[in-house]
Design brief:
alpha/beta, eight-stranded parallel β-sheet, five-stranded antiparallel β-sheet, 14 helices, globular, binds 1-deoxynojirimycin, binds calcium ion
Length: 539
Amino acid sequence: MVQTSTPRAPWWRDAVIYQVYVRSFADSNGDGIGDMTGIRQRLPHLQGLGVDALWLTPFYVSPMADGGYDVADPRDVDPMFGSLDDFDALVADAHDLGLRVIVDIVPNHTSDQHVWFQAAAQAGHGHPNRDRYLFRPGRGAGGELPPNNWESRFGGPAWTRLPDPDGTDGEWYLHLFDSSQPDLNWENPEVHQEYTDILRFWLDRGVDGFRIDVAHGMVKHPDFADIETDEETGLLGTGVVPYFDQDGVHEIYREWRKVLDSYPGERIAVAEAWVEGADRLLRYVRPDELHQAFNFDFLTAAWHAPILRKVIDASISGVTSVGAPVTWVVSNHDVTRHVTRNSDGDPDAGLRRARAATLLMLALPGSAYIYQGEELGLPEVTDLPDDVLQDPVWERSGHTQRGRDGCRVPIPWETARPNFGFTEPDAQPWLPMPAEWGALSVAAQNSDPDSTLSLYRAALRLRREHHALGDGEMEWVESADDVLVFRREPGFVCAVNLSAVPIRLDGRYDVLTASAPIGHDASGITLAADTAIWLKAAS
Ligand code: NOJ
Ligand code: CA
């Protein structure tokens, strides 16, 4: 087998990137909301963890109707998170520590508080100020019905009617998400110009890249035809629909790639593209487009060896066919934390599987993203009281879906109640933190060699040191159906036991690390259920 990785490969091909959900990471001023300075103070945690970069979720000026993915001013920091100076100081400190910084960009929509939408609202129908968004006349005799039957990803219709300035009934505007997140019209050259300017604004401030929100959105099929809604698939949508994964988005990325490449260093972009299958995903990472695309097929795969094996194979053969690395991810701020997602209702099994999944992910070829708190083994918070829920999904679904707040609860840093060092003890964190999270805090796990935090640190250190890990190739080793074993050169083996019983690996191995205690003697290794191990194959 040929070893393709070289020490000179671009940083992002094997980078481990840590997602900071800014609002919930660390609060420096006691208002219960995470902020730039809080992140800055906690950078040593990220450096000690051993990640290469951080991705900051939106911190731009925003009414926070959708956790900041409703951007009112994309060129400034919302005062709740600090200032541009605080941002610059954070980037400078991160760079000093050898950590790169990528930021979110939200091109599918703006907030309704954005100056463009304010101008559109004040203009009557047909006015050029409306052409930056997607206004359409309604159906029905008086235009009282939405232009088509598209639904918001958060529930309810994807159209809202806006009265004309003279008070008469007006046109409808499209919003694939909340009604306060109007979709932009990417047929309008001004929109293109604006977004390349925004890219430059942050690149000039030294960011190392962008995570592109709803990267499969932006371009809509010009027919705006009705769709069969019962074929839609979940919150973010992956089915073949006229508003996602249209060919036109790739033109935008070709334009953006030129901007990124015009800056020194390897500035990157990663696509959040929930598309149908590896062969659609690879289109986003063609050489003249984006660098990475989250591999959500891996995130959504069941904890089942044959399924994972298939997904891993398809993922690798997909994007590597165009020369891109796979970008692995198991959790983010939009999905149930994987400790809970894979638990089958048993929290112990959930944590065991999460730890094993991490070793699996970090051993696979390519780059990986870690969502804040997964290094602590945090579970989803499933019992948040109704009256604290902030995700627009809760309201828009008519209180039938609780939304994503349960994976956005602030990080416990210290053991002391009530706020575990996230904010001042007398402050109210923006979401309440479970009383038992002191035991999961960074301080509690810090010097415990068996903690999840120690496992992440060990795995990330090995990943940096071991020549077989990161970018490159892998080869399956024959094993029982419910076990995954693969080899990477030189001399590395990863084995994951997804069966319900212990398994035996015969052979002479040195153990690098394992997700749970193992049995080890001269003739082999015993791996308990839901356990992963990294081995050095003896020469
Ligand atoms: C994906 C983001 O990750 C999610 O949090 C947000 O609600 C939607 N895009 C809309 O911007
Ligand atoms: Ca704060």
